[in-house]
């Protein structure tokens, strides 16, 4: 397919490819597309697949031309990337394109970002601290309590609701005219905070009680946080309290393939220790890689930088109640954010690129970074 190719490395991990595709491949691609059209087009007066070729060519010449160019470009670029082992990280941008003519070669030029070549700096003998995470009895107990929470049950109680209890209730919205609409039945609500105005309005209610309360809904309007109060009528069906299972051998047998609480504790501890070792190794490796990266320089593809910028913006936008799409569409603002997060973006992008590289180093000291 590819008759000639000229590949040039451009700044910022880009390559430009000047390609000439032989005329036989072009003719073959065009013929295949014409046949596809002949099989699929529908024209009044003709059965599907029986439209004369000259009519297909007359009516769909531009579509055939565009599809031929697209297929020839995709096929030739795929061939070049496989032969020269480039890893593209962006879609190709066509910067030059010749005419598609019968029985003639076809030429075009495309530019795209690729994974950069990483040449390691001096990395032998680099020292890194070893991070050690330890498993304590407290952490094992926390995991056991988490299991009890997971298998807890809600039991009905004959009392008025308090913070920490659950209410099973029906609620309806109250319109400006006092009409009740949008009924929701059998909703279970946890009264989980004394500072929660919604929960405070429900404290003291019992089975069969009814009350009108106000529910505040927060929303964003043009970057400004606003609150809308929704009047509700609630009808309490039940008051429930969470009951945790007793931590005994029967509980251990019910939730796991063990015979006692002690055996369950040992299993939990073993898993936590395994996780801690993996976490320690991963953290130590990350620190070692960072030190190697500091001694290694390579260009970053613009596409990768933009993707990392988008990722960071997608994390901070909800916290600041900002519209991510508008942030991306505002070029000046987008460039400002890219500049602001430049070091973070480059650091994380370089770490991503560096994943495939291998290096060796020594770990100088042991350090307990965190106990649990």
N-C termini distance = 62 Å
- What radius of gyration results from the CA coordinates? 33 Å
Order of helices and strands: EEHHEEEHEEEHEEHHHHHHE
Shape: extended
- The helix/strand class is alpha+beta
List keywords for this structure.
single chain; 372 residues; alpha+beta; Chitinase A, domain 3; 5-stranded antiparallel beta sheet; extended; disordered C terminus; chaperone; PPIase_dom_sf
Summarize the structure in words.
- There is one protein chain.
- With 372 residues, the protein is an alpha+beta fold.
- The protein has three domains: 2-113, 2-Layer Sandwich (Alpha-Beta Plaits), CATH 3.30.70; 127-136 and 259-371, no CATH class; 153-243, Chitinase A, domain 3 (Roll), CATH 3.10.50.
- The protein contains ten helices and eleven strands.
- The chain has helices at 23-40, 53-84, 137-150, 197-202, 249-255, 261-294, 302-319, 324-329, 331-340, 342-354; strands at residues 2-10, 14-21, 93-97, 106-113, 127-134, 153-156, 166-174, 180-190, 210-221, 224-243, 362-371.
- Helix 3 packs across helix 6, helix 5 (249-255) crosses helix 6 (261-294) and helix 7 packs across helix 10 (342-354).
- Residues 357-372 have low confidence and may be disordered.
